[in-house]
Amino acid sequence: MLSVFRHSLRFAGVRHARVSAHVRDNQLRVYHRTLPFLCRAASGSTGWTLNSDVADALLRGARPPDNVLLLSECLERVGSDERVANGNVRMDVVIQEPEFYIPDEHTRRRILSLPECQTYALVYRAVPLLRGKGITSVRRWGGADENADAKRAVRDELADERLWNTVYGLLDIAFNAAKDAEARGKVVKSESEAAKVIPGAFESVVNARWSHVLSGVADKPLGMCVADARPTSVWSDAEIDVTPAPEPGENVDDARGDGLELLVLTSAMGWPFTLFGTDATANDTPFQMMDDTDVVVRKESVRVWNIVRADLDAWLVRKERPPTPFVLVG
Fold first, then answer.
1. What's the distance, Cα to Cα, between the start and end of the chain in Å?
2. Do 71 and 170 sit in the same domain of this protein?
3. 35: closest CA among 56, 58, 19, 55?
4. DSSP of 146-170
5. How far apart (Å, rounded) are the C-alpha atoms in residues 279 and 13?
6. Using only C-alpha atoms, what is the Rg of the chain?
7. Is residue 246 part of a domain?
8. Are residues 181 and 266 both part of a single domain?
């Protein structure tokens, strides 16, 4: 059982996320530290597809703001006592031409740094410009080398490098996620379509045969023999739970007692972790063929399993402590 699990790990794979070194990534992180609205997907989904709307991708699936602040409210928020003629103008209008409505650069910068105003910039400035250039969906945004002219035009019209970096970063994330999801879907579909029944594979595993190796048999070579059956008894806990000396004496063999040496479970057609690939070739050695069909259980394997099982019981059954990390060497 342990060997089957160990070998099956060969087929495990980990997809590493792509990491960009471009400066826009750093600005995107800074931007989102002051933009909790974007980080809360109050509704909707962040499972992007290529057909996702650019507005949804920029808002991370959250709904657009229901109530838009007035310019006078924003001035109050930043502690400005400046009086402007158009204080009752909504910020979705102000955000289109902030220099016109907020002449003072210092005040304008503080207002545009408000989380709500950063959201307005995405919803009411970036999205209309993207749609005006035909970029209405994640698919139309494309990869880094796609739609370059349209993207350049949006960047120039925004005239705000930090806002552009945020738009670029968020839509790139959505596009890459959608492409990855599409690729995974194709792989699953391909594997499903290519799946085939291997006659006899199920029965081979269910009816796998036990055998074992015994020592202390006087009339056999090296005093050992193979028996085609389950042993009448296996190792006791006292035999298994023995910690070997870290540095045994040189040229000193441990005394070997008579009895069970190892267990072997054999499936004639192989195992799931070998993909039932037991087609022997003329160059295959007996050990290579055994690797396909045999699971070998040694005393050391059972000792490791006892340690892991005791820890799992303490974690999952008795609820005494979290699991202990182990490193298996050998």
1. 18
2. yes
3. 58
4. SSHHHHHHHHHHH--HHHHHHHHHH
5. 25
6. 33
7. no
8. no
Tally of domains in the chain: 2
d(CA 8, CA 272): 8
The pair of structure tokens assigned to 253 is 């063999």
Phi-psi region of 230 (alpha: psi -120 to 50; beta: other; left: phi over 0): beta
Q: How confident is the model at residue 217 (pLDDT cuts 50, 70, 90)?
A: confident
Cut 0.70: pTM above it: no
pLDDT digits over 97-141, tens only?
A: 888 888 888 888 888 888 888 888 888 889 999 999 899 888 889
Same domain, 212 and 159: no
Q: How confident is the model at residue 245 (pLDDT cuts 50, 70, 90)?
A: low
Q: Which of 275, 314, 312, 316 is nearest to 292 (CA)?
A: 275
- Whether 82 and 75 have beta carbons less than 8 Å apart is answered as yes
Interatomic CA distance for residues 67 and 42, integer angstroms: 15
